[in-house]
From TrEMBL:
<feature type="transmembrane region" description="Helical">
    <location>
        <begin position="152"/>
        <end position="172"/>
    </location>
</feature>
<keyword id="KW-1003">Cell membrane</keyword>
<comment type="similarity">
    <text>Belongs to the UPF0126 family.</text>
</comment>
<feature type="transmembrane region" description="Helical">
    <location>
        <begin position="178"/>
        <end position="197"/>
    </location>
</feature>
<keyword id="KW-0812">Transmembrane</keyword>
<dbReference type="InterPro" id="IPR005115">
    <property type="entry name" value="Gly_transporter"/>
</dbReference>
<protein>
    <submittedName>
        <fullName>Trimeric intracellular cation channel family protein</fullName>
    </submittedName>
</protein>
<feature type="transmembrane region" description="Helical">
    <location>
        <begin position="121"/>
        <end position="140"/>
    </location>
</feature>
<feature type="domain" description="Glycine transporter">
    <location>
        <begin position="100"/>
        <end position="173"/>
    </location>
</feature>
<feature type="transmembrane region" description="Helical">
    <location>
        <begin position="14"/>
        <end position="31"/>
    </location>
</feature>
<keyword id="KW-0472">Membrane</keyword>
<feature type="transmembrane region" description="Helical">
    <location>
        <begin position="38"/>
        <end position="59"/>
    </location>
</feature>
<feature type="domain" description="Glycine transporter">
    <location>
        <begin position="14"/>
        <end position="88"/>
    </location>
</feature>
<keyword id="KW-1133">Transmembrane helix</keyword>
<feature type="transmembrane region" description="Helical">
    <location>
        <begin position="97"/>
        <end position="115"/>
    </location>
</feature>
<feature type="transmembrane region" description="Helical">
    <location>
        <begin position="71"/>
        <end position="90"/>
    </location>
</feature>
<dbReference type="Pfam" id="PF03458">
    <property type="entry name" value="Gly_transporter"/>
</dbReference>
Amino acid sequence: MAAPAETIDQVTRYLDLAGVFACAMLGGAVSRTEKLDLFGFLVVGIVSGLGGGIIRDTLLQQGPPVALTDYAYLPTAVAGTLISFLIHLSEHAWDRLFTALDAAVIGFWAVTGAQKTLAAGLGWLPAVLLGITTAVGGGATRDVLLRRVPAVFGGNGLYATVAAVVAGTMVVCTYLGAPAIGIVAGIAFSLALRLAAVRYGWGLPNGLDWQPHTRLAAAVRGVRTTRRGRTRDTGTEDSS
């Protein structure tokens, strides 16, 4: 028997708040690494905790973002940030001690993003995309704010990939009439895949060095090499 829509909405709300709290703590840990003051902690923690959900809700255009209408969200983000401010929790310590929580948060937010998108009447592809956005948006915004390359772009194991798998699982289960199973299975997949990625160093490939070995490609490479050599000899810039 399928769970009532109201129950699913309530469960995803609690999962969303759990993600806000955990990622606000992570934002505080990053703030400590950057040696920010209390105001910096709060700004970075709140952006980290609420950023992904605000982006999701803005794209859905279903009214103001839930972070601005549900008064539990901002205090939850502030509480998570203050814990990191009061307790010495470095970014490195977070990576070692809270990897499982981080993995669970990916599941929480990917499930929530997909469920909210489907509830808004959109299809499976927007649900997967906004599930990913919810999971990674806050962290990416936080890193841009601190002038760092967002961790989701590489060097952080499987992150967005895990979110895509979780969101896809939620979409499939919802279409089959079993969203509750989608929530449980999505979080389980998140924990299993993310922890395995961290444990075994899994990640997506970087840019490859393959070059086509055809006569045309060789001729093009030869022309480019010759032109670069002429540029160095004459000391002029190649305007092409």
